[in-house]
Write a structure and sequence with these properties.
mainly alpha, globular, 12 helices, 238 residues
């Protein structure tokens, strides 16, 4: 979680944790909540608590840069508990809050670092290489600006180093998804007896590559975004 977090609450019994998540709008899909580990449930409640506190602080002072930074960081973490458009929407909200913070204070280095992580996560959510690279370039600029303010910060240095590898990692991911799609199409053809007579049905369906990326690729892509942020956060630690 990018900026400093609020104090942790006292641990709740697992049953109480589930009850809290089922009654909380941020929990999203209730089936996924039911299968969460205790650690995941605690993280979800913790980051949502941080989001609520940051939003409350900002409502009291619309120029509270630290509140906006904490708000954006919490939204980015919460996005990694979601899939599909819900994850995309939360990441975009995180970007908006962090950009608001930087409009007030363009030199706030932790907000720049957080924004770089959010933009990198956004890049991995797009199949188009050019579009993804625009997000990676913006992320690189954020990390460079953060280093101008804190040149010896190991996390910022590592984030800048890692972001240069993002385009290659994105390309490799697309290759893997395309190969999985090809195998899926072959299995479908074999199940249909080699095809034939299905032209009208195929015409009514979206292109296989688009459909596969939108549905089966989400878990991979959002998971990769979560992994990226985790690596950026922990890579500088001994």
């Amino acid at each position: 979680f990018c900026p400093p977090a609020p104090l942790r609450r006292a641990p709740l019994p697992t049953a109480r944790l589930k009850e809290a998540l089922f009654s909380n709008p941020v929990s999203g899909n209730l089936e996924s909540v039911a299968t969460m580990s205790r650690e995941e449930m605690e993280k979800l409640i913790f980051f949502d608590s941080a989001r609520e506190k940051a939003e409350s602080d900002w409502n009291n002072n619309k120029r509270d840069v630290q509140a906006l930074t904490r708000w954006g960081g919490a939204l980015l973490e919460l996005a990694h508990f979601r899939q599909g458009t819900e994850a995309v929407d939360l990441i975009q909200l995180a970007v908006e809050k962090l950009e608001m913070a930087l409009e007030i204070n363009p030199k706030k280095h932790d907000a720049l670092w957080c924004l770089g992580n959010a933009l990198t996560s956004q890049g991995f959510l797009y199949a188009d290489t050019r579009k993804a690279n625009t997000f990676f370039d913006r992320a690189k600029s954020c990390f460079e600006r953060a280093l101008v303010e804190e040149p010896r910060n190991e996390q910022y240095l590592k984030a800048l180093e890692m972001t240069t590898k993002a385009p290659y990692l994105h390309l490799e991911l697309q290759k893997q998804l395309m190969e999985q799609q090809r195998m899926q199409e072959m299995q479908m053809q074999m199940a249909q007896g080699g095809g034939g007579g299905g032209g009208s049905q195929q015409a009514q369906e979206p292109p296989a590559s688009e459909f596969y990326y939108d549905v089966a690729g989400w878990a991979v892509l959002v998971g990769l975004g979560a992994l990226w942020v985790a690596l950026a956060r922990n890579s500088a630690k001994p």
